[in-house]
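Example 3.2
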Amino acid sequence: MSEPLHFVVKTKLVDVLERLGEGAALPPERVLAKEFGVSRWTMRQAIRELIADGRLRARQGQGTFVATPKLVQPLALVSYTEALRAQGHTPGREVVAFEEVIADVELAEQLKVAEGDPVHRLERVLFADGQPIGLETTHLSVARFPTLREVLEPTGSLYRCLTGRLGVRFGEGEELVETVIATPREAELLKATQSLPMLLLHRTSRDTDGRPIEAVRSLYRGDRVGFRATLRP
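Structure, written as tokens:
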């Protein structure tokens, strides 16, 4: 079976991007279509897929540009801050909400608290080099961490606060990764379109005694972030 024409064009465009280099502007769609001998519709489809893949970035009113490589985050119980810094990037956070909410059935099960118990809810936009890449919502038991609001710097590392100031020792965690489409609110916070694929992570972390520490929902822009896991037999 022959490959779709737009896929063939997309493959050839990758060579063009490598020649242009990071940050370079992509020639106009009509120019590329003429150069490749295809319709503008075919070229547009190929460009859209490269944007979704994170190889190109569209800037409204400015054009389309060769994107920087995706950030690769480890699937591990490590600090987001330290993981980014290790790759030479500057991490950042912006608080969307920091409040107490009531645990529903699902959250009570994840944190091993009673339904109706108060839990901390911390929602923050995650940045890399000043650009939004993720939206993270973390729930923790108020009974276990009653002083969290007093000791946590809202834009600082939650992992470092838990281990350094509250004496938590992370033991293990479970993480589920899936692809989703962002809600209008999530897309707005991440400065993305709703058509952009997102990576959704659900994680429950436990300490060395097996007690739940946190329940985390992290939404990442699929064009900016990838994940790596080390597998052993």
